[in-house]
Amino acid sequence: QQQVKQSPQSLIVQKGGISIINCAYENTAFDYFPWYQQFPGKGPALLIAIRPDVSEKKEGRFTISFNKSAKQFSLHIMDSQPGDSATYFCAAFAYGGSQGNLIFGKGTKLSVKP
Amino acid sequence: EAGVAQSPRYKIIEKRQSVAFWCNPISGHATLYWYQQILGQGPKLLIQFQNNGVVDDSQLPKDRFSAERLKGVDSTLKIQPAKLEDSAVYLCASSPAGGSGYGYTFGSGTRLTVV
To answer: How many domains are contained in chain A?
Structure first.
């Protein structure tokens, strides 16, 4: 079944701390794993993404760690800032029908306390 | 580059009424998606267009939802009649091509409340 499971549902971190959000998937046909950031009243915006042939990708304070054998991937936010407070969604792309589309996790609401 | 435009931003209707949402994708993007985002959940695909043809509508409740993409550009999503459980944010997204997960850009969505 095409599903992406995300945890935790909510997360509170102190400013300067590390935020970690985890996702797991079942479908081995997934071949692209993006993370989206969503602020209230806005649509999701791409934050960082990884393909399964890479174990880690870093962009600034954001890092994706990918474990293909465990079918798990995670987002690490280093030096978390109050401006990072938002809802984060992991997603996976799978081909289906004639093309394919993104399957999203349920989201993690991150609050960074000053 | 202009983003994905959606209107209206908010809509409140009574159950059994009808409602329509409009989306203008990024210029040149061939693929357009409508997602439903229920409060506290991730977006769920309703329908996917490639140019003006439907490529995936497997999760669209076709007894009440309909969508079209005229001339491969703008798109309209309609609900008739609305139910309480249709209360959600309806997100439109577009991408250059439908064959990968790259380049998805989302609009700000339309928040629908059915009372």
So the answer is: 1
CA distance B83 to B105: 28
Nearest CA in chain B to A32: B101
Per-residue pLDDT tens for A8-43?
999 999 999 999 999 999 988 888 999 999 999 999
Residue A52 CB-density burial (10 A; 0-12 exposed, 13-18 middle, 19+ buried): middle
Q: Considering all CA atoms of chain B, what is the largest pairwise distance in Å, rounded to the nearest integer?
A: 39
- The token pair at A83 is 């401006």
A104 close to A23: Cβ distance less than 8 angstroms: no
Residues in chain B: 115
Residues of A in contact with B91 (CB under 8 A): 43-44
**A96 contact B CB<8A:** yes
Taking the Cβ of residue A101 and every Cβ of chain B, the question of whether any pair is shorter than 8 Å is answered with: yes
Q: Give the domain CATH number at A94.
A: 2.60.40.10
